[in-house]
Amino acid sequence: MARRFTDCCAMFERHFIVRGHDVIRHARHYLSGLLGTQRRKNIERIEADVAESDYQGMQQFLSDSPWDHAAVMRQVGEEAERVLGGTGQTALYVDETSFVKKGNASVGVQRQYCGRLGKLENCQVGVFVSLGCKRRTALVDFRLFLPESWVEDSARCTKVKVPEAHRHHRTKTELALEMVVAARARGSTHQWVGGDEVYGNNQAFVGALEDMGEVFLMDVASNLRVWESDPRPQVPADSGQRGRPYRRARASRSGVKAEKIETLTARLFASEARKVAIRDTDKGALCARVWVRNVWVWDGKSTDARRRRLVVREEADGTFKYSLSNAPADTPWERLAYMQAQRFWIERCFQDAKSELGMAQYELRGWTGWHHHIALVCLALLFLLKERSRAKTSVPLLSARDIVELLAVYLPRRPRDETEVLRQIQRRHAARQRDIDNRHRRVRGALRKPSIQKLTK
Questions:
Q1: Which helix (H) or strand (E) holds 339?
Q2: For residues 51 and 413, is the Cβ–Cβ distance under 8 A?
Q3: Would you say residue 42 has pLDDT above 50?
Q4: How far is residue 165's CA from residue 172's CA, in Å, rounded to a whole number?
Q5: Predicted pLDDT of residue 243
Q6: Distances (CA, A) of 339 to 40, 88, 215, 336, 399
Q7: Could you tell me which of 95, 161, 73, 162 has the C-alpha nearest to residue 373?
Q8: Phi/psi at 313 (nearest 5 deg)?
Q9: Which residues contact 183 (CB under 8 A, 6 or more apart)?
Q10: pLDDT of residue 149
C-alpha cells in the first residue's frame, strides 16, 4: 500500500513543480498527514506526525505557493472517470458542505445556512460535484461560494488574496452549472445529474441542464407546485383596447390548476405506489414504497411548460422524499427509484473526508490556502477510492478508516519517544507564547492611541 501511495503521488508530481521550484516533498508530506491517524489534521499536527516534514515549508506550500489547484482537480476528475465511468450507473452529484468558523477573517465566511448544523451559523460554504457509481464516489470539482457582502468589500478581498477574476458574486446554482459543463468537457460519462432541494427547486438551473442535453433527477420541496397535465401557456392576443397590452403568459387549459406536490401525493400515493428495490446495502437490497407520475412545471412567465417525472419515496418514518426528473417517459420506476437513492453516497463521501481526512480542520484564512487544502483532500479521497476499488473482491468491507490505519503503519511517521514528544511540546509552547506576545503588543498599541491623538490636538 505504501508503494501505491508513492505511485499516486508520482502521478501528480508535475503540478507541484512551479517556476522552477519543487514543492513535491511538501505535497507528499501533507497528503501523508491527511491520511494519518491524528485526531486533528492541521499543519501543526501533521508536522508532528509525518517524518521529515517541515511546518514552515508546508505552511508556505498551502498558503502562498503558486501551484494550480484547478489543474490538480482536472487530473483527479480524469482519474476518477477511469475508475467509475463508462457504466449505466455513473452519475454526477451536486451538493454543498459548510465549514464552521469563528470570526470574520476567513475567506467567504459569514452568517449563513450551515447544512452541517441545520441552522444559520458563521461558516464558509463550498459547492462540490461528485462522480459516483453504485457505492463508490469521488469529489471531482469544487467552488468556494463567495457571498455578496464579500465581493462588495474590495479591501476584505484583497486581504485574503481573492483573485480579481473571482471578485463577483455567483449563486450556488451558477457555480454548479459551471462544474457540470467542465465535467462534460473533461470527458465525463455520467448518465444523469443529481442534487438536493437547493438545486432541484431552481427551475432556471434544471432548465439549463435540460437545454444542455443532461438528464437529471433532483430533490424538490414538498410545497413546489406542479400541473397534472400540460397547462399550454399562451400570451394573450392584443385585444385592440387602449393601454399597455398584457404580455404575461397564461394557462390556456380551463379547469387545470397547479397543485402542491405534497397535496398530490396525499391524494394518490396510497392507491398507486408500489414496493421496489432502491439501493444495495451490506445486508441486501433496500426496498421502499415508490410512486412515479408525469407532471408539468411552469414558471408562470414562459410560453412553454416542461414535462417532468415526479418520483416520491416513502421513508421508514412515514415521511416522503420528493424528486423531479426529465428522464424519458418510458423510464422504469425501478430505475428512477435507484437514481433517487444514489445521492446518499455523496453524503458518505463528505463524511469520510471530514472524519478521516481533516477536510474541515484547516487553519487557513486565505483564498489560495482554502483551495489548496480542499484539492489535496480530494486527491486523498481519490487514493481511498482506488484502494477500495482494488480490494472490492478480496476485502469488500474495506473502509476509509481501515486504509488510514494501515497507512499509519506503512508510511514514515515520527518516533513517539520522550525526546520527540518534548520537542513537539516545546514547539507548541513557543508558538503559543508568540501569540500571547503579539496580542499584548496589539492591546498596548490600542491603549496608547487615544493619548497620542490627544497630544496632537
A1: helix 333-341
A2: yes
A3: yes
A4: 17
A5: 57
A6: 35, 11, 11, 5, 24
A7: 73
A8: -120, 135
A9: 77, 92, 129, 131, 140, 141, 190
A10: 93
Say what the pLDDT of residue 238 is. 54
C-alpha cell at 259: 397543485
Rg over alpha carbons for the chain, rounded to the nearest Å, is 26
> What's the half-sphere exposure (Cβ side, CA atoms, 13 Å) at 121?
15
3 state SS for 308-335 = EEEEEEECCCCCEEEEEECCCCCCCHHH
Residue in this structure with the C-alpha cell 410560453, named with its chain if needed = 303
Partners of 125 in beta bridges? 98
Please indicate whether residue 223 or residue 281 has the higher confidence score (pLDDT).
223
Q: Say if CB 108 and CB 150 are below 8 A apart.
A: yes
Distance CA 421, CA 398 (A): 32
Q: Tell the residue number behind the cell numbers 474541515, with chain if given.
A: 360
* pLDDT tens readout for residues 47-77: 988 998 999 999 999 999 999 999 999 999 9
Q: How far, in Å, are 125, 166, 253 from residue 152 at the CA level?
A: 18, 12, 46
Phi (first) and psi of residue 3, to 5 degrees: -65, -40
What is the spatial distance between Cα 61 and Cα 369, in angstroms, rounded to a whole number? 9
3-state helix, strand and coil shares in percent for the chain, rounded to the nearest 5: 45, 20, 35
DSSP 28-85: HHHHHHHTS--S--SHHHHHHHBTT--HHHHHHHHHT----HHHHHHHHHHHHHHHH-
Cβ(205)–Cβ(179) under 8 Å? no
What is the C-alpha to C-alpha distance for residues 287 and 289, in angstroms, rounded to an integer?
7
DSSP-assigned letter for residue 160:
T
pLDDT at site 320: 95
Q: What whole-number distance in Å separates Cα of residue 169 and Cα of residue 299? A: 24
Cα→Cα distances 173→5, 95, 283, Å: 35, 10, 36
Residue 287 backbone dihedrals phi, psi, to 5 degrees: -110, 155
**Bridge pairing between strands 216-219 and 192-195:** parallel
d(CA 18, CA 66): 7
Residue 121 burial (C-beta neighbours within 10 Å; 0-12, 13-18, 19+): middle
33 and 41 Cβ atoms separated by less than 8 Å: yes
Task: Give residue 155's Cα distance to chain centre.
Answer: 28
Amino acid making up residue 219: D
Which range among 233-247, 325-339, 415-429 has the greatest average pLDDT? 325-339
Query: 364: which 3 cell numbers?
Result: 487557513
Distances (CA, A) of 194 to 95, 224, 249: 9, 18, 30
Residue type, 214: E
